[in-house]
Design goal:
Blueprint lengths: L1 H17 L6 E6 L8 E3 L2 E3 L1 H13 L2 E6 L5 H6 L5 E7 L2 H4 L2 E3 L4 E10 L12 E5 L3 H9 L4 E5 L2 H9 L5 E5 H8 L5 E18 L3 H17 L1 H8 L3
Helix pairs in contact: 2-8
Length: about 240
């Protein structure tokens, strides 16, 4: 009998200590293949969004914990309570807004075309093989507007770039700043002058978590006013 009680007490202790302490940690979920916003450097995840997240954690008096997942898993991580907020170049859409709550916009990015050098313009997308990141705004845009295109959906932009280098696709549609970072070590690739559309980023929290949403918005407004987000971008694109 005493043995059974000991097992029960041990189980209770494990349940309380084995889970993350919501009072002391702030969990951010991201996809760390999106430089300059989130990327790996010397084994650590760094970037513009990480700098912002540190300010948010500081404001809340909590320890920041960062989880790296596939981009199309971010919203599920938030909905399930496995993370408190998400940031990874997440664009507002009515579909996403049904599942999570969005902060104010804190960054603007052009969606651009990455192609092999020698290509100056792509007039017709319908007959092309187009690589996009799975679940991204470019994925939605291409799916909606180019019914006859062959769409290759990759979990990582790096994989999409590799497809382009290996002639498996004709072009990649993605965000401008990450595109610039990815072509730096790839001299055979270029960013075309033509712009596809303009994109804006927000962070996301669990639906109904107004307290956290307000806190994050206040930090974003302050950082924008102080010009710090622009400075973060400059720092991570040197």
């Amino acid at each position: 009998m005493k043995f059974k009680k000991l097992i029960f007490v041990t189980l209770i202790i494990f349940l309380f200590t084995g889970c993350r302490n919501d009072e002391n940690t702030l969990v951010m979920v991201t996809e760390a293949g999106f430089a300059p916003y989130e990327y790996y450097e010397n084994g650590d995840i760094v970037g513009v969004d990480i700098d912002i997240a540190k300010e948010i954690a500081k404001e809340l008096g909590k320890e920041l914990v960062i989880k790296d997942v596939a981009f199309d898993s971010i919203i599920n991580e938030i909905k399930s309570g496995k993370a408190d907020f998400g940031a990874a170049g997440i664009s507002y859409s009515e579909e996403r807004a049904k599942e999570v709550d969005f902060t104010i916009d804190y960054a603007t990015s052009k969606q651009v075309i990455v192609a092999k050098k020698g290509v100056s313009e792509i007039a017709d997308f319908d007959d092309k093989r187009i690589a996009v990141q799975l679940g991204s705004v470019a994925d939605s845009f291409v799916t909606k507007n180019f019914k006859n295109a062959t769409i290759v959906r990759q979990k990582k932009f790096l994989a999409a770039i590799e497809d382009l280098k290996n002639d498996k696709v004709d072009l990649v549609i993605m965000d401008e700043l990450p595109a610039k970072e990815l072509i730096k070590p790839n001299p055979s690739l270029t960013i075309l002058d033509q712009e596809v559309f303009t994109d804006k980023y927000g962070m996301v929290v669990k639906k109904g978590n107004q307290k956290l949403l307000d806190k994050i918005n206040n930090v974003l407004k302050r950082l924008i006013k102080e010009g710090k987000i622009d400075n973060y971008v400059l720092e991570h694109t040197k």
